[in-house]
Amino acid sequence: MRTLSDYINNDFKPIDSTEAIEKIQDFFMEISFSHFPVVENGIYIGCIASEDVETFEAQKKLSDYRFTLEGFFVKTSMNWLDILEVFARNNANIVPILDENNKYIGYYEVTDIIKFLNGTPFLKEIGGIIIVEKNINEYSMSQITQIVESNNGKLLGLFISEANNEKIQITIKITLGSMNEIIQSFRRFNYEIVSEHNEDNYLTILKERSEYLDKYLNI
Asked: Which of 87, 137, 115 is nearest to 4 (CA)?
């Protein structure tokens, strides 16, 4: 399996702070990047946004607009989930990469990180997805793991997919197996099942009872 370091990109050199705005505008017209790294004397000083460059005066230099630079970046030691968070938080499709000595070494493109994610067991392995919901002060990751494994399921991954002040939703991927038993176990521990499942006998029983009640009321 490829590692994150395999996706470090250097197809385009970082923009120097002395570069003419006109040349940078031309660059963004040809390349669909939301941002691009800027260096000064070889040192990374921030990213320039393509939307900002469109409003700059073409005859000036980037150094005249240094105050508009955005200082986000990732480190080579960061994991893919933290890297994705940087992409999302900055509405960017590219993020600069610095080594442990804060030296600029390249950039990641979001499409490459998604390719890397697609190769992880969470997405690559065949399995089933369950989304559960519970009060934010009552859920437990260890309990979720125990529920899955006590029903002979194998956990491929889980993450918090939605949260507010009261409720939290957790997306769980498990190997295919006793899905119905796992679902019923979550209900016994007061988790609400948000996702729909053909294997969910509980919903089938509710539907049958509802249809029976409708027939009874129509007699």
From this structure: 115
Percent of the chain whose pLDDT exceeds 70 = 89
Q: What phi and psi values does residue 157 have, to the nearest 5 degrees?
A: 165, 160
For 33-42, how does the pLDDT look when each residue is reduced to its tens digit (9 = 90+)? Answer: 999 999 999 9
Question: pTM, whole model, 2 decimals?
Answer: 0.67
Q: What is d(CA 160, CA 34) in angstroms, rounded to the nearest whole number?
A: 27
Whether the Cβ atoms of residue 47 and residue 35 lie closer than 8 Å to each other: yes
Q: In this structure, are residues 28 and 51 in contact, taking their beta carbons and an 8 Å threshold?
A: no
Token digits for 111? 């499409």
Closest CA to 45 of 24, 14, 19: 14
Radius of gyration of the chain (CA): 25
Q: Name the packing angle between helices 141-150 and 179-188 (round to 10°).
A: 140
* Cα distance between residue 38 and residue 69, in whole Å: 8
- Give 88-142 pLDDT, tens digit per residue: 999 999 999 999 899 999 999 999 988 888 777 777 778 888 999 999 999 899 9
- Provide the total of helices (H) and of strands (E) in the chain, helices listed first: 8, 10
